[in-house]
Task: inverse folding
């Protein structure tokens, strides 16, 4: 009877196989609403390294809700590894911890990682300040920033004013007059 081979990852086992570019919220969550869950994605060169990375992340980080690999390959044998984290203010520290510890597997310094937030569209250094100012870290921040009606989305894209949904009464009118906006 043959025994399955149980091999743990060793230092630099994933060298040159994982991209230094991390995408945040480019994909939708399987585990909950977009307001509640942050989805990270890493490009990995090959299915087996992707499965190894998924296994490592799920076992090493109890704060990870889920990790998974894309069902099919992208270009030239690349796969995506998805990591889902709860959208809370502590997620920045959790992500930075994960990235700093991935150095042992991928041989990329934490300071060399960059991220792209899907709503933003450009890469930035993956550090505390950039993450904190770019990524909505709580469900409330996410909803405040992105939960608009479809018509409001079109108005924003066109640079038009979005009408207020505040019920008008004497009190709100007096506040608007005092603020000089009416």
Result:
């Amino acid at each position: 009877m043959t025994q399955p081979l149980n091999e743990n990852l060793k230092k630099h086992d994933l060298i040159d196989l994982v991209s230094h570019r991390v995408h945040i919220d480019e994909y939708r969550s399987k585990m909950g609403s977009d307001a509640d869950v942050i989805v990270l994605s890493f490009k990995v060169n090959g299915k087996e390294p992707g499965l190894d990375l998924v296994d490592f992340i799920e076992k090493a980080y109890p704060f990870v809700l889920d990790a998974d690999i894309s069902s099919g390959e992208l270009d030239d044998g690349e796969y995506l590894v998805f990591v889902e984290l709860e959208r809370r203010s502590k997620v920045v520290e959790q992500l930075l911890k994960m990235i700093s510890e991935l150095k042992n597997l991928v041989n990329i310094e934490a300071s060399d990682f960059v991220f792209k937030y899907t709503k933003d569209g450009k890469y930035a250094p993956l550090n505390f300040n950039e993450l904190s100012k770019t990524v909505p870290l709580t469900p409330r921040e996410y909803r405040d920033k992105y939960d608009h009606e479809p018509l409001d989305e079109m108005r924003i894209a066109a640079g038009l004013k979005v009408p207020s949904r505040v019920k008008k009464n004497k009190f709100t009118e007096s506040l608007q007059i005092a603020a000089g906006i009416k």
